[in-house]
Specification:
Number of strands: 8
Radius of gyration: 30 Å
Shape: elongated
Strand order of the largest sheet: 2-1-3-4
Distance between the termini: 94 Å
Helix content: 40-55%
Largest sheet: 4 strands, parallel
Bound molecules: iron/sulfur cluster
Structural class: mainly alpha
Number of helices: 27
Length: 665
């Protein structure tokens, strides 16, 4: 009875503290005032929880760590039953789950086996972190202590559970309960003599140690990076639905009461962005995949998310208590925690979002902070002035004249929509395709392929404007929306339904983001279009062997953003004799060229150059040519090839050029 009273008191105190801490964390989360609605599409959300959280699918992208985490996660889920059993025993000693019949047999058997596997997994996790020093797991001193404490607590939970079960078996003269199957505990128990007088004492000792470890663990969580144990499943449930995933959320610029754009501190973020901070496991997968971090720049997506958490825990308590004086309020998330340079180094390649096992959306926060720099603080790298001015005046990021936009088409007999809107598809050329000398050749090539296939297409000519992607990713939402709204008006005026484009940035913006502004189009990338023309035999390739080794570079906006991995490869593999060689990092693990997110127009202020890193990897495949399907990638890789003085031997070409070179006349 005395034991029960002591247990009940400890239990009530521990649970009350836990609820109090959780309540605090929820209140801190709600200081984020940006609106966010995440309760639509419940079935898709539940499916994500089943696959990503319970199936741990993202973790298996790194197989050893994936297996490790899978064991720890499922071990924990199963241990919950054991914990529950022990807790109920604190209230009513004879309780157990044996009434569940065969389920209890399975449960107890798995608990016994998993206890050892989880202990081994934790020891291996410690070895990776403290002995092997796996780079992505490197954190500061407090992070290391935190990781060690958590891993030791998990080991303690398992050891005390095994001890408790072992001495229960010894106490009961080696007999198990009905339906109970504990092979390991039984084996351990048999190493003790029958009728051991101290068995009851040791059973009680391990029972208390188990209960106190569990309750201590529960109360340590809210202060630890392992807060993710509580928040990662909700965060996965609340992640963006597929339809919105990887798109930038619009700012409502028409609202007259808006005085601040983007985010300079936690109160400008949404509750979801703060929950992202709580959910970070500091596993470092995002930073390991980040092209900027890979070449030695300051940007680390993990740091961005951890900084959001640190700043929340520092500032939110003061905001809630109304104590708004003092040092905390002289600092800001942007500048004091996250530097401007870090924010400008992001290529928006989406690798961090792709890799994060708990569905954190780093880019939403990075873009919000860029919006603050551009729209609220007017503080951005000087050469962006020219870019923004050009987009505003010339409708393209470069200083070209809009009246020259369709010059590439001269003599090709291509009509504009204004001349004759009766067509099957609109060819959206894009700024690079219209003005960049190298990419104009790609534009002409692709248009020639369409002509050979008798496609009834039109262009907009001088009615086409920059799609707004560059301005939007650079944080200039105002300018981006001006471009987008003008384009939507033009496209809707001609009742455009289908669009083909050779630019992945146009493809993504027009297809996925123009919907936010009333532009609903069926947009296809030229790699998909050519693939279809080949499948439908609307174009035929020569049977002469091409006999060239080609490596294909995945564009982030085509691949990671829109899952277009196969079409460009199929196109190349259709060419007889062409040998396609994959780079080390390919498809969803592909490495950015360094141009996205407006980086094309920014200088490298520190670290190495991303395009050189990628070109080196392409050259490692010993190719005769490098294929791309994006104007920005083509420019960056061409520069890389020049840097390595390989331009004479290795060509960088668009996939359409490989096709055109081998087409049957
Ligand atoms: S989007 Fe790419 S460049 Fe930007 S932080 Fe994420 S991984 Fe790094
Ligand atoms: S943001 Fe995601 S991938 Fe990056 S460290 Fe945190 S949990 Fe890991």
């Amino acid at each position: 009875m005395g034991k029960n009273i002591i247990f009940i008191l400890i239990f009530i105190i521990a649970i009350s503290l836990f609820i109090r801490n959780c309540g605090k964390l929820i209140r801190y989360m709600l200081v984020g005032k940006k609106q966010e609605h995440r309760l639509d599409g419940i079935s898709e959300r539940l499916f994500k929880v089943i696959t990503v959280a319970f199936g741990q699918t993202k973790l298996f992208r790194d197989l050893p760590a994936g297996i490790l985490h899978f064991l720890i996660f499922w071990g924990f889920v199963l241990f919950l039953f054991a914990v529950l059993e022990s807790i109920v025993q604190g209230f009513y000693n004879p309780f157990n789950f044996s009434f569940t019949g065969p389920f209890y047999s399975v449960l107890t058997w798995i608990q016994d086996i998993f206890a050892v596997l989880v202990i081994l997994a934790c020891l291996y996790a410690m070895h990776r972190r403290f002995v092997m020093h796996v780079p992505r797991l490197e954190v500061d001193k407090s992070g290391k202590i935190d990781a060690a404490v958590i891993l030791l607590l998990i080991i303690l939970v398992c050891v005390t559970m095994l001890g408790m079960n072992t001495f229960l078996i010894v106490k009961n003269n080696f007999s198990l309960l009905t339906n109970e199957v504990r092979p390991l505990s039984l084996l351990l128990a048999k190493s003790f003599p029958s009728g051991l007088s101290s068995a009851q004492f040791y059973y009680e000792f391990f029972w208390w140690a188990h209960i106190l470890t569990v309750l201590g663990f529960l109360n340590y969580l809210p202060y630890s990076k392992h807060l993710h144990v509580l928040t990662s499943i909700p965060n996965t449930f609340l992640a963006d639905l597929e339809i919105r995933r990887n798109t930038i959320k619009p700012l409502d610029l028409d609202r007259e009461d808006i005085q601040f754009f983007g985010a300079s501190d936690i109160e400008h973020l949404s509750w979801k962005q703060i929950l992202d901070g709580y959910s970070c496991t500091e596993c470092g997968r995002c930073t390991a995949a980040c092209p900027a971090a890979n070449v030695g720049k300051s940007l680390s997506p993990r740091k961005i998310i951890v900084d959001i958490r640190k700043r929340t825990l520092e500032k939110a308590p003061h905001m809630i208590s109304g104590d708004t004086e003092g040092e905390t309020f002289q600092k800001q998330l942007v500048h004091d925690y996250i530097t401007d340079l870090e924010l400008w180094e992001c290529t928006t390649c989406n690798a961090c979002v792709q890799e994060c096992p708990v569905m954190i959306e780093h880019l939403d926060s990075i873009i919000d902070m860029r919006r603050n720099l551009v729209l609220s603080e007017t503080r951005f790298p000087a050469n962006l002035n020219n870019v923004f001015r050009s987009i505003e005046n010339n409708y393209t990021p470069w200083a070209f004249n809009q009246s020259d936009r369709a010059q590439w088409a001269e003599g090709m007999g291509i009509k504009t929509m204004a001349e004759d809107p009766d067509c099957d598809i609109l060819f959206w050329v894009g700024c690079a395709g219209s003005f960049d000398n190298r990419y104009k050749k790609v534009t002409k090539t692709f248009a020639s392929i369409m002509q050979k296939a008798n496609i009834n297409f039109r262009i907009l000519g001088i009615e086409e404007k920059c799609n707004g992607d560059t301005a939007r990713r650079l944080g200039n939402e105002y300018l981006a929306q001006v471009m987008i709204k003008d384009n939507v008006e033009t496209l809707n005026k001609y009742k455009v339904k289908k669009i083909v484009t050779a630019c992945p940035h146009c493809f993504h913006s027009l297809g996925r983001e123009y919907k936010q502004f009333g532009g609903n189009y069926d947009v296809i990338h030229h790699s998909q279009f050519i693939n279809r023309l080949l499948d439908e035999k609307k174009i035929e390739l020569s049977s002469d062997a091409y006999n060239k080794k080609v490596t294909y570079h995945d564009s982030c906006y085509l691949g990671r953003y829109n899952n277009v991995y196969n079409s460009p490869r199929n196109v190349l593999e259709n060419i007889p004799g062409l040998e396609l060689r994959e780079m080390k990092r390919n498809r969803s693990k592909g490495f950015c060229c360094g141009a996205g997110g407006g980086r094309m127009f920014l200088e490298d202020e520190e670290g190495g150059r991303i395009n050189l890193e990628r070109t080196r990897e392409a050259l490692d495949t010993n190719p005769d040519a490098i294929a791309s399907a994006c104007p920005f990638c083509m420019t960056m890789i061409t520069d890389g090839v020049k840097h390595f003085e390989k331009s004479e031997e290795i060509q960088v070409k668009d996939i359409s050029e490989f096709v055109f070179e081998n087409i049957n006349n």
